[in-house]
Structure formats: C-alpha cells, structure tokens
Amino acid sequence: MTTPAASFDLNPRRGWLRRAGDGLAAERARWALWGPVVLGIGIGVYFALGTEPARWTGPAAVIAALGLMAWSRRRVGLYLLAWALALGALGFSAAQLRTQLVDAPVLAKKTGAVMIDAVVGRVEIRIGHRRLWLRPLGIDRLDAASMPERIRIRSHGVAPPLRPGDRIRVRAMLLPPPGPAAPGAFDFARRAFFQRLGAVGFAIGRVTVVERRAPVGFTARVQAFRHDLTRRILAALPGPPGAVAAALMTGKRRGY
User: What CATH number does domain 105-212 carry, 2.60.40, 1.20.120, 2.40.50, 3.40.50?
Assistant: First the structure.
C-alpha cells in the first residue's frame, strides 16, 4: 500500500518547520503579548555590550528587520522571526537613543575643596543632614566644558532653609559617582549617568544663600511645590506620623 505524497514530507526538517509555522500561525492573536518581552531583550543586549556601538547600529538593524518582514509576508515562520528581530532592534535603538540624550559631563577625578555657585534643584532631608541636588553655575578650577550638569552634596549642621530655585554658594569636596562595591552589586555610577548626575560630595562650609529666586521650568516648579507641601505637613504633624503622611502625599521621605 502506497502512502499519498501529501501525508508525509521527504525532508523531515522541512516538515518540522512547516508544523512550527502552522502552530505559530494559530497563535497569531497572542503574538503581541511577546512584544514587551522582545523589546526588553533588545534593551538587555545593548546594556550587555562591553563597548558603545556606532550610532547607526540600532537604526540600521530596525530597517533591516523591517525589510525582512516585508519580504517574508507569505512565510509565517520567517515573518515572525523578522517581527521579533524588528522589536528587539527597536528596544536596542531606544536604549541607545536614551543614552545619547542623557549624556552629560562626569567629573574625571576627586577635587580638593572647591567653591561652588549653583541653583538648588531639589532638597532631601535625611537624619542629621540634607542632600542637595544642584545645577552648578560655576565650580573652581573647572571650565564650562568639563563642569557636570548636576551635582549632589551632603550638607551637615545648621543651615538656612532652602527651596528649589534658590541660588547658593558653598565650599565642598566633589568626586565622581562611585561604581559598584563588588562585581554584580548595585552600580550607582550607571544610575547617576541616566540622572545626568556628574559628581557627588559633601559641603565643608556653611551654605550661603546668594539670591532667593522662583524656580524656572515645569520640573523645578513641581519640585518646589512638593518641597513646600512637605514642610507644611511636617509643621502640622511632627514626628513619624508626619513623615509617613508626607511620604504618601508627596513622595518625600524623611527618616526619624
């Protein structure tokens, strides 16, 4: 008894691919659920690279994958592969573009005591000190090209009340954002890079308010509003209850 030609495939590999393609076609309605996963894989591939790729790498990969999608419209398996490659390349390109957009100067090495003229961007209250996020206008011994866009310093002791928008002068020690303390540990330097934070340090003198100014820009106004609202909450409800209320209402966390 002979077997009809339609019931088997002389090439077993081709038969497996055909069956896989039929299965993928049946799951077409669920393809979109894998979109975020494949995007994340593309982002992960970018951050796993040891060196920064050329700027055209991501866009070129997206265009090539879209071309493969257009060419393989009638081949389900190959089309799905091209679709996955296009999404992965899109995630790769998004991470690459984000890196380029936030690129800002980072302090090359630790400084001695330097005088800093800056505008307050954010004030965070901690136990025994304040953490000041500053936009420097001038730093001793640093030219404009190498001056970080943002710095963060700790201020101890009695100091005048500060709010976002104030212009201040302070003497401080600065150093580059530190890397991970151990292999695989939290990489503060990477996080600082994406926050455009180019230096951290601590004040070694009293903070002097040069000028009280209203915050400029939407983000600065939002920070000022959160800061003022937090102060009012803590004034009306001191102690741990006020800290919890402020954290829930404004996102400002204060330890006691």
Answer: 2.40.50
